[in-house]
Amino acid sequence: MTRLVPIRLPKSAAEALAAQAELDAEYRAGGTDLQERRAHEHEPRALVDLRDLEAFGDIEPDAGGLRIGAGASLQRVADHPAVRTSWPGVAEACGALGTPQVRAVATLGGNLAQAPRCWYYRHPDHSCLRKGGDACLARGGDHLWHVCFDTDPCAAPHPSTAALALLAYEAEVELALPAGSAAPEAPPKRERVPVEAVLATDALTQIHPSALLTAVHLGAPLPRERSAYVRASSRALAEWALVEVCVRLRLGADGVVDFARVTVGAVAPTPLRLTAVEQAVVGQPASPERFEAAAALATAGAKPLPMTGYKLELLAGAVLTALELARDGRPSPDTIAPAPLGDAELSEPASQGDR
Amino acid sequence: MQLRTTVNGAAETLEVGPDESSLSVVRERLGLTGAKLGCGHGACGACAIQVDGQPVASCLLPALKLEGRQVETVEHLATDDELHPIQRAFMAEDAMQCGYCTPGFVVEAAAFHDAWRARRGTASPSRDEVAKALSGHLCRCGTYAAIYRAVIGACEGRFDAAPEAGAPLVAAGPRVDGLAKVTGAAKYTVDVRPEGMLEAQVLRSPHAHARVRAIDWSRALALPGVHGAVRMTEIGHKVRFVGQEVVALAAADIATARAALREVEVDYEVLEAVVGTEAALAEGAPEIYVNRTHKRAPNENELDLFPVRWKANLRGPFGMFARQAGRAARRIEDDAEAFSGTFETQTQVHTALEPHAAVAEWIGDDSLRVHLSTQAVSHMAEELAKRFGLRRDAVEVHAEFVGGGFGAKAVMPIEALMAVELARVCGRPVRVANDRREELIVGGLRPALRAEVQLSVPPSDGGNTPPADGEAPQPALRMHTWADAGVAIGSAAAAMARIHLPQAQLDLADYDVITNGPPGTPFRGPGGPPAFFAMEQAIDAHANALGRDPVALRRGWNRNPARARVYEWIQEQALWRDRPAPLADRGRYRRGIGVATATWPYFVEPATQVTVAASSAGFRVSMAGQDIGTGTRTLLAEAVAAVLGVPVHTIEAEIGDSSRGTHGPTAGGSRTAASVFPAATRAAEALRDELLEVAEARLQLDAPVAVPGGLEGRPRGDGAAQPQFVPWSEVLAVAPAITTTGKRKRDQGGYFLPPVAGLAIGRHLGAGAQITELEVDTRLGRVRVLRAVAGLSIGKVHSPTLARSQVEGGMIQGLSFALYEERRLDPRDGTLLTGGLEDYRVCGLGDVGALEVHFIPGGFEGVQGRGIGLGELCTLPPAASIANAVAHATGWRPTQIPLRPDRVLAGLASVAQSTEGSQP
């Protein structure tokens, strides 16, 4: 009863790239996004399933930072002791998205590369801009959940929660790309780019049609940082965010903020870093008045659609809440062990479904 | 590709497709149907299985990912003589209703429990921890309160052992079919797969309004694996909404059927469509039902349609239940202080977790067997016999288990007709089952409603003593409503004022606004939740404006004893009595308390009969009825067990088959308890009396009398002997097979109306109230219910634990309606946008505060069995209760639901500007 498209299960990145090029396939990591979408596609593309890719989900120390294999499940990232200690915003965001069942299977790489959740895009009978149609159907239609920073022809917000946390940590992603003129079996070229370089519509395939996201690199941790992740939604749990915010702060001994990163999601075609808010809190005491004034800057430059004006107030409120939570939260240690804990020291067995 | 995996301990090697899901592997390949397809996109969790001990949504997990893994399904959690503690807990706490979501919850909760116990021993997890762990699951019946109790209790170690050593597994809880539900053994229509079954898919109209000029399916029928097709819209007829059935086609499997439908060519004459009520009423709007096609409009209500005026797309007013309407209007006009407001409720979709589904099979030319997810096996068998010209006894309708209905499965589903027609054309069994998107389009809906309400309350006499109940001057109410049931008609929302304020002067009018949207169908308390949302807020708002106590005000008007009991109950509740002043909180989070009440009738199906049989194997109760989750099996078994004084679980309850047993009622209109319980009791009493006669004759006893578990009598002729106890088993051993049938007698004083079409409306009214405490996050616009207490006056409560479950479910559905659920169509072309359970938001475990249910004793002496149904009553007050609490907390009166964050923020901003600090 299944449609038999060609499928490959490569063991290495080189094989994966070659198979992709040969079949014009799409990569499948956890499959949680693809499975539903492909069920309604008339002619689904061939598949390169990354199940057997060697070391695809490994998490290991990397030059003072951390390299997280793109195939690591979101739950594993959220539970990883080193991530929790040194990059707490990443752990919190990855542990807050979706549901436990999805987080157990969905991968970090897949979360970054997933398709928009727009109800026009997901409609099996509609062909919107992103699916080769002429126009964004949400614009003239019902776009209650769409962007309030309208900067792209497509009005859907970027769906990745992990992305805004990674943006707050200025993470880089590692791509495997074909090694130019060499034989197809040659080891692929590895390239590291800032995470935001792969988030825009079709950014990854524009870098190269066969580009494979293989890992995320987190830089050296910041001691004594405080972080918070805030998600505004209707229901308490298991709901796509209306607005989401990741904040990192460091307070000096005098209570003055000396470091801040504020990133937001669900409001724009890609997650945004709000440098205006950051600048407004750095060098200032972490006081309610300062925070309120800074949070009000969150909407600077916003361009809401007719139905998304409410997101501005929600955004300012969520940024303020995240600033407060970060300020009141427990800071990360003064010094962080140079070699983060490896998988062997995990207290819980590694999550499944992400090999 | 080859897949090697281990399922429930057994190594399996299977050939699977690249896109095949793990759910397909366990259900279709291995026949393990405990895991269910609910939504198909990982939102509902009904498909959960464990992979290496970790619960996953198997609908989203490609089968190939199972390579080398250990898969455990719900079927493997229990052994023959030992349940998992979580299964015992779910049974003991009755954490299930229809049971369709139960295997998924059990699989997830078992993993959580095992991990928790390993780490934390018997420490108690918080509600928040449980909610987060189970956040990937939805229960449409609303069993969350019981799920909290079950999971927390199991983690505390309270269900490590069976309640009684050696007791049968089935006795672990009050619901007689609970064991089947927690082990995945319960078979639903979607689990039925007769030999040679074909799968159907449906070609649906992409246009909201069009005429079908021609259909060419020749290329589709020529494809290999395609067995037949039927037209669901006649040539020359119109389709009136996006998603309306045009062609149904059966093939060897779903993929083949889908591919074939793409080869069907339909020539549509596209007509101008009317999307939304504004467009429908606009000057020059195209008429949806032209000339004599009015009678094609489906009925969204349970009552028969009365002749009502049509004007283009407006049908109405329906005002049959008005009372002194002219005087009401004049009083309101003359009262400068009269309350005036407009309330709007959204389209709510039933979205039972088991979709509409049918498996039809012809046996010869003149006999039909249909497995149907239905609320009415008896009624459906009659209807199918009529439609297909068959003898009634040549039609069997089976529904062993039904995954929720809420009204949408009480009417003849088009899915059944398609399956029957296709089965005839193809000569093979055919299954039709909606996917989630289809279910959200055509699976039924509660119409959106706009209600304009005005209320005039006579001034109080200024005295210190409030008037006695019913002695205060009556109010005048004007309520005019406009319903959007898509292409359906029959709204009677304002009419509900006549049962709620029967002595008031009432200017009532209900209009249907016909639009090119999917048709409404009866939904748990048709018209009720929107009507009470408007009425009960109007009373609350007006009482506050006049500085009068809102409950005392209602008491002054009331002459109904059930309502009197409810009003008194409210006034006794500490949560209400000790509530803070309005607008007590001024910070980010603001708490408020609100109350709303409701009145509702009950139906009776006087033709209901229950059969009880005794044989050497024991007692069996049967009825051609069904259990949609409310607990009909248990109710039957309890009625019989009570008469015979035996444990409930020793009674075999047999339902779910129209051809076995006697006429059972449709599960709808709160009629099951009041119809079934008295009939079952009478049948059991007749059986008991026959057994006494048998004992007298065959065991040589003098004047035996029934006692719990058997009878007592003296050996014949020995007047001095002590009466001896004889258990029923000994009587059955000497008795012939005995079958007795019990009918449902008339209520004392008859019915409110004589039965029409087999349905009577009872003379009594049930009454209920809900007090809600909630918190408004004024910054992020979220409303969170902290606590809700419901009080119901319905007389004697049959099966109290199951009754509580049903009330909690009604409260939760009401909360979900008030805060989250909202069907949305594209404003241009009428396409459904909320086509999945991510976009159509049903409340989850984390959204439900602490719930309490009180059954207020007394009354209903004239009703057979002394108690009435409660399924609808309990879901009427929540939305108004929540809105009244929001007004109490913030001063903003919500007139439109759901209370999305954007609405809450806008509402708060509106009061901040105008009436800061004034009375809500």
Automatic annotation (TrEMBL), chain A:
Which GO terms of the molecular function aspect are on file?
Answer: FAD binding; oxidoreductase activity
Region entry Disordered, spans: 328-355
Q: Which SMART domains match?
A: CO_deh_flav_C
What Gene3D superfamilies does UniProt report for this protein, alphabetically? 3.30.465.10, CO dehydrogenase flavoprotein, C-terminal domain
Cite a single Pfam family from the UniProt record: FAD_binding_5
Q: Write down the superkingdom of origin.
A: Bacteria
Q: Which residues form the FAD-binding PCMH-type domain?
A: 1-223
Its name, as the record gives it, is Putative aldehyde or xanthine dehydrogenase, molybdopterin binding subunit protein
Q: What is the lineage of its organism?
A: Bacteria, Pseudomonadati, Myxococcota, Polyangia, Nannocystales
UniProtKB/TrEMBL annotation, chain B:
Q: State a single Gene Ontology molecular function.
A: 2 iron, 2 sulfur cluster binding
The record's CDD domains line, in alphabetical order, gives: fer2
Q: Where is the signal peptide?
A: none
Q: Name one Pfam family in it.
A: Fer2
Supply the InterPro entries for this chain: 2Fe-2S-bd (IPR002888), 2Fe-2S-bd_dom_sf (IPR036884), 2Fe-2S_ferredoxin-like_sf (IPR036010), 2Fe-2S_ferredoxin-type (IPR001041), 2Fe2S_fd_BS (IPR006058), Ald_Oxase/Xan_DH_a/b (IPR000674), Ald_Oxase/Xan_DH_a/b_sf (IPR036856), Ald_Oxase/xanthine_DH-like (IPR016208)
- 2Fe-2S ferredoxin-type domain: which residues? 1-77
Q: Which SMART domains match?
A: Ald_Xan_dh_C
Q: Which domain of life is it from?
A: Bacteria
Q: Which UniProt keywords apply?
A: Iron, Metal-binding, Molybdenum, Oxidoreductase
Span list, region Disordered: 455-474
Q: Does the keyword Cell inner membrane apply?
A: no
Show the PANTHER family listed in the entry.
ALDEHYDE OXIDASE 1-RELATED (PTHR11908:SF132), XANTHINE DEHYDROGENASE (PTHR11908)
Query: Which protein family is it in?
Result: Belongs to the xanthine dehydrogenase family.
The molecule here is called Putative dehydrogenase
Q: Which organism is it from?
A: Plesiocystis pacifica SIR-1
